[in-house]
Amino acid sequence: MGAHDAVRTASRALATEAVHAGRDDLARQGLHAPPIDLSTTYPSYDSRGEAARIDTFAATGADPDGPPVYGRLGNPTVARFETALARLEGTEAAVAFASGMAALSAVLLVRASMGLRHVVAVRPLYGCSDHLLTAGLLGSEVTWTDPAGIAEALRPDTGLVIVESPANPTLAEVDLRAVAHACGSVPLLVDNTFATPVLQRPAEQGARLVLHSATKYLGGHGDVLAGVVACDEEFAGRLRQVRFATGGVLHPLAGYLLLRGLSTLPVRVRAASANAAELAHRLAADPRVARVHYPRIGGAMISFEIHGDPHEVIAAVRLITPAVSLGSVDTLIQHPASISHRIVDADDRRGAGVSDRLLRMSVGLEDVEDLWSDLDGALGRRPLGGAGNCANNHNAPAPADTHLPLRR
Ligand SMILES: *Cc1c(COP(=O)(O)O)cnc(C)c1O
Questions:
Q1: Could you confirm whether 45 is annotated as catalytic?
Q2: Where does the record place Low complexity bias (predicted)?
């Protein structure tokens, strides 16, 4: 993408970028839908030129100009998705991977290759992110802290600070600006999977790296596994080099589906968020529910603790699908202590606020009355004479806001 294009499109709104970014060249080519380039290799009669492009890539990780070389270096369809996501997050670049975990692994490997193996992280994180750090699978060493303890936890070999906001699964939020400030010169990685750039753009608040499990809202239909890191061009170069060397590339068909998913992202997130806000409101007033967590910034995720047995609720839903993952057009519910955060040590899990009675629900685009009727049935009988116990509810949800702003 040339500087001229970047300037010309700088003032586009998010909803416009969602349907146009990564597609700017199509009309000139006489195309409307983006082509899917499935090539693993690319013919070149100019091996001197190709050698020069490989040298440039080895030195900087910059996307090679000219024809692609080999699928593991980069793919034009995947590049469209990367361009579009970078525009939505307001960063110079984005680098896509085979999954969210492959994306996080690449970030850790970039920093470890610079001798910076220490990571400071705030719980809760997605269960497998927690596990990757705690088990030290990539040779990193983690210090867990709360947001207020970040500055103190930094060491000379700290390569990264990691937070999720809203966090999986408690939907706890951190003040990103304050956290970015506390990080000083250490890169802050914000996992923005739950908020999406529709609700929150962490780069504007000082995050150097914005990570997504694109498997969730970006893809949005439960049929693509992918990850992406939005960041500055310098870090993106290193991520491309690690991706090239370790091979966690995204398949071009997945790249196509993600680009297509982005075009409806603002509409999906706003509609699902309106449903979620309404359900959070009803749950907060329900005597069978002990506590509701719903983020201040909104969103389509709800978590709630119930007085009864969460396994019974999972067994009783009929319209809502009992399944891990999130961010699809349909509503999913799961029990974090059994599934998404099972791999985290039970004490650490509870210490991070993930109670054994917590259920996490990813609200989709169904009619809200149908969702409520399923949830109401699955929650079982109301206690006799039970009045609502709103007083126990924490983070009482804001009223449904169907006019969430496009930009924040
Ligand atoms: C799912 C998830 C991940 C991991 O992504 P995969 O695409 O499953 O590898 C990371 N962070 C968060 C917040 C997630 O929800």
A1: no
A2: 389-400
Q: Tens digits of per-residue pLDDT, 230-286?
A: 999 999 999 999 999 999 999 999 999 999 999 999 999 999 999 999 999 999 999
- Does the 266-403 domain belong in CATH 3.90.1150.10? yes
Q: Indicate the SS3 state at residue 234.
A: helix
Active site residue 286: no
Ligand 1 atom 1, closest CA: 213
The span from the CA of 279 to the CA of 397, in Å, is: 9
Which of 80, 111, 208, 216 is labelled catalytic? 216
Q: How far apart are CA 160 and CA 142, in angstroms?
A: 10
Residue 270 DSSP class: H
For the chain, the structural domain boundaries read: 1-92+246-263, 266-403
Quick check: 6 pLDDT over 70? Answer: no
Marked catalytic residue, from 191, 256, 286, 291 = 191
Residue pair 79/94 in contact by the 8 Å Cβ criterion = no
E-strand ranges in 78-182 read 93-97, 118-122, 141-145, 158-164
What is the rounded CA–CA span in Å between residue 370 and residue 376?
10
Q: How far is the CA of 194 from the centre of ligand 1 (A)?
A: 10
Q: Whose CA is nearest to atom 6 of ligand 1?
A: 100
| Lining residues, ligand 1, CB within 6 Å | 99-101, 126, 128-129, 164, 168, 191, 193, 213, 215-216, 225, 227
Structure tokens at 264: 């409806």
Per-residue pLDDT at 340:
92
Question: Rounded to 5 degrees, what angle do the CA atoms 146, 151, 153 make?
Answer: 70
CA angle at residue 355 from 352 to 360, to 5 degrees? 100
Note if 191 is an active site residue.
yes
Cis check for the bond before 169: say yes or no (omega within 30 of 0): yes
Cα 337 to Cα 149, 173, 182, 340, distances in angstroms: 26, 20, 31, 7
Lowest mean pLDDT across 60-69, 90-99, 194-203: 60-69
Phi, psi of 118 (to 5 degrees): -85, 135
Contacts of 359 (CB under 8 A, 6+ apart): 303, 304, 305, 306, 310, 313, 314, 333, 334, 335, 336
Q: How many residues does the chain have?
A: 408
CA-to-CA distance for 15 and 11, rounded, in angstroms? 12
Q: Whose CA is nearest to atom 9 of ligand 1?
A: 100
